[in-house]
């Protein structure tokens, strides 16, 4: 895996405003926040995308995410938030180390904006997908 700014933060070569750390994960304030309190949570394991992450690191992220969401909400007074996680360049991933954004949303509109181009699931296509997924 390529050396990234997140791996340099983990090694202590790049400073961060640490929110939380344990032996498997690190959370810190985003230096380019979308809204006040925008926090990034990363596993210490070097994996570019979530499908490449070990189950142990994925579990550690899963345990830490609610904790980070609670401290962000408490500190900012926000009553809503988004959790964003992208995998691969076509999914808008810019840093190729698994990371989760906890982004507070405010009544002013500050926060993540999302466009949702929903389609409709065709029953025949669903059956084909399920066959491929559970085989």
Strand content: 15-25%
| CATH topology value | HIT family, subunit A
SSE order, as H and E? Answer: HEEEHEEH
The total number of structural domains is 1
Within CATH, the superfamily carries the name: HIT-like
CATH architecture: 2-Layer Sandwich
Strand tally is 5
Radius of gyration: 17 Å
Q: Roughly how many Å apart are the termini?
A: 30 Å
The helical percent reads 25-40%
The total count of helices amounts to 3
Describe the structure.
With 135 residues, the protein is an alpha+beta fold. The protein has one domain (5-115): HIT family, subunit A (2-Layer Sandwich), CATH 3.30.428.10. 30% of the residues lie in helices and 19% in strands. The longest helix has 22 residues, at 55-76. The model has no long low-confidence stretch (mean pLDDT 95).
Write a concise keyword list for the protein shown above.
single chain; HIT family, subunit A; 5-stranded antiparallel beta sheet; 3 helices; 5 strands; 135 residues; alpha+beta
């Amino acid at each position: 895996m390529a050396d990234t700014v997140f791996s340099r933060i983990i090694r202590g070569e790049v400073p961060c405003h640490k929110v939380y750390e344990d032996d498997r994960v690190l959370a810190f304030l985003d230096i380019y926040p979308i809204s006040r309190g925008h926090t990034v949570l990363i596993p210490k394991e070097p994996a570019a995308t979530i499908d490449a992450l070990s189950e142990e690191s994925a579990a550690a992220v899963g345990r830490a995410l609610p904790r980070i969401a609670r401290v962000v909400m408490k500190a900012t007074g926000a009553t809503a938030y988004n959790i964003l996680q992208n995998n691969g360049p076509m999914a808008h991933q810019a840093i190729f180390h698994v990371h989760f954004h906890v982004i507070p949303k405010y009544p002013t509109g500050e926060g993540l904006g999302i466009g949702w181009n929903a389609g409709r699931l065709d029953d025949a296509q669903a059956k084909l997908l399920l066959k491929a997924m559970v085989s």
